[in-house]
Amino acid sequence: MTELLLIARLGGRRIAFPAEKVEAVVELEGITPAPCSAAHVAGLAALRSRVLTVIDGLAALDLGRTEPAAARDAVVVPCEGHTYALIVEEVADVVPADAGISSLGAPVGAGWDRVALGTIEAGGELFLLVDPWLLIAGPAAAAA
Known about the structure:
By secondary structure, this protein is mainly beta. It has helices at residues 57-60, 112-115, 132-137, 140-143, and strands at residues 4-10, 13-18, 24-28, 41-47, 50-56, 72-79, 82-88, 90-96, 116-122, 125-130.
């Protein structure tokens, strides 16, 4: 069976998530701050009567913070019994992978090295394959 990929843009880079790790793609309109949470947690949001912990994708990479906006694209990911929404700049499409995962071979940049699984080709393009669970863990996970 061909692996499906969710294509998104984060930090100005087109990336791919393994589709089997993604529950949904949503547009978040209201995020409530969560005091005393980790720096990469943007807050909490409601989705179909569930509370989601919202992760700022840029902050999770230690690349700054996402600018406040009325609505944001987010990738909903279940992880260890909780549901998270990862804020991304854009969600593009779901496409089949053309081939398997290739190793990185070289560093890809601050933050990215921690979350990248490798590269993968889809639709004739090469994408950085990102593990959403490592984004959820945030930059402090690198130190642990």
